[in-house]
Amino acid sequence: MDLITPDLGLVFWTGLTFIILMFILTKFIWKPIMAAVNNREENIQEALDMAKKTKAEMEKLQTQNANLLKEARIERDEMIKEAKVTSDGMIDAAKKKAQIEADRIVENARISLEAEKNAAVAELKNQVATIGLEIAEKILRQELSTDEKQKQLAESFAKDINLN
Q1: Domains of the chain: total
Q2: Which residues lie closer than 8 Å to 6 by C-beta, 6 or more apart?
């Protein structure tokens, strides 16, 4: 039963020891422990605040990146459109230049063909005239081979002259 009902001296010394221990703990241990806990709490709160701030900045950066990407796509589309217009212009200019060159070549060929045709016609006329003269000369030699035929021809020319 001694354990259940403590002696007055034991209660006194236990109480005194507890108060001294509480004083020492409060004076020397609780302050550093509480300071460490408070410091840790502040660090955790700062880390949470920093995480929130970083998250907000990340969202802002993602929004900016999305906007930049959108602008880049728009700019790319404009550049592609400009390149298409430029290439179409260059193709049209090349087609026009090729058509002009083709027309010039055709015109030169037509002029050349016309000149060759005229030269061929002139040469043909000369050959026909030469052949005609040769035939006429042969015919006249045969017809004028005798004196009598020559007299008849002279008389027919004379009659034609008088009639005119």
Answers
A1: 1
A2: 14
